[in-house]
Structure formats: structure tokens, C-alpha cells
Amino acid sequence: MLKRLVGVITVHNNWAVQSIGFENYLPLGKPEVIAENYDRWQLDEILVVDIDRSKENLGPNFDLLDRIASKKLSTPLCYMGGIRNAEDALQLISQGADRVAIDSLFWSDQESAFEIADAIGRQAIIRAQPVKKIGNKVCYYDHLIRKEANELNLDDFLATSNYFSELMLIDAENEGRFDSFDKSLVRIFKDSNLQIICFGGISSKKQISHLFNYKNISAVAIGNFLSYKEIPHKELLIQNEVDVIRMTSFGEATKGAREW
Hints:
By secondary structure, the protein is of the alpha/beta class. The chain has a single domain, classed as Aldolase class I (TIM Barrel, Alpha-Beta Barrel), CATH 3.20.20.70. The chain contains 7 helices and 12 strands. The chain has an 8-stranded parallel barrel. A hairpin with a 2-residue loop joins strand 1 (4-12) and strand 2. Helix 1 packs across helix 2 (62-69). It is globular, with a radius of gyration of 17 Å. 42% of the residues are buried.
């Protein structure tokens, strides 16, 4: 399987921020400028997450997407935040998003999540799921109210797998921390056919390489670490592939997808 590196831009009050545990935020600058940096660094995908939109029931941040799309990036762009229905998803795609990511909608209004998949296709959807380890149990985590819920149930994801292409597993406990993603979180999925994106506490090439030993981990997503020091992606990329021009597809010919 081709493995991918996803750059995450967390947006709060229309500014890009470093997020730490879904509770503390440090300003970084304009999201569109960071998106340009990620594009120049030849990451495989950019995920823009506006954390205010769902919490405040504001709908997607179309103005933000317009500003980023105006930069004419060559890197595939995914948007997450405030998506309520198929109409929102279709407008996001029409304004420049290649894919969308949704999380709480799979709980609060599953029918709308399914309608989005019918409207734009399951390949254009990432299901995002924050989780927390409580004792020996992996539990769902609701980032809107900052509280863990029931134990993770594999059957839930398998039952809805026709409506998303990848599952983004977010380590809510370690999000924003160095080299701390809890690898045990993925064990429940190891024998499934679900394609997993890991996010939260991922910061080193060794860590990434270890995660990619799992056959169904298709990508890792990194946010804060890409902003901690000058061009840190150089430590994560295979150097002789940095300058390879890539196609912006998600197929097997994708030049930006690197074997780790």
C-alpha cells in the first residue's frame, strides 16, 4: 500500500493555531500562508480543520476555503468543520476542496452523513474519530464537550464503512504532544479492511515508520510539529523524492505517496 503524509492546519477564530489536547491553542498565523508552505513542502494532502464551526453551529467556513483555494495549491485539499448536510459538502467541493472530513455527524445525524456520501462519493469522505484510552479500554471522545463516551465498537465503523474511504483515528489524549501517539489505539482495527489515518502526538520519522508497519494504516497526519522549527518535513521525507513532481490523484500512480 502507498503511504501518505497529511499536513493538518487547525483553525480557531480564523487563525491557524497549535492545538494541545483540544484545550489550549497557540497562534501560528494565516491558514492560507501555512497551506502554501505545506504545498511547497510537497506533503501528500492538506487537511484544514476549523474547530469553531460545529461547536457554534456555524456551518462550514466557506470564506476560509476561498482564501486557501485562491492560492491554487497543487496538493489535494480536505476540509473539516461545521459540515451539516450534502448541500454543504457539495459547495465545499465546488469551492476547491477535494475531500471532506466529518466526525460528530456520524453520531448526531447519521442519515445526513450517508446523504453526503451519496452526493460526493465515499472516496471523498474521511470519517474522523477522536478517542481516549481509559484504563484498558479505548473510548469514543466527544471533543465538543471534552468528554469520553462509550467503549470503541469496531462493528460501528464496519457498519458505516460504505460511507467513507478512510478513518482518521485521533489520539485526543496526546494530540499536540511530541512522539506520543498511543499505538495500542489501532489494535482494534488490525484485522479489518478499514484504511486508517493516525493523528495526534506524531512527530518523528521512527514513529511514522513503525505505524506504517501496520498494513491498513494508509497515512499519518501531522499538525503542530510541522510548525515547531524550520522545514521539519525534511526529517520526515525521503530526500531523493522531495523534488519529484507528483500527480494530484489518490490512485496507485500518486507520485506524492511515499513508501516509508
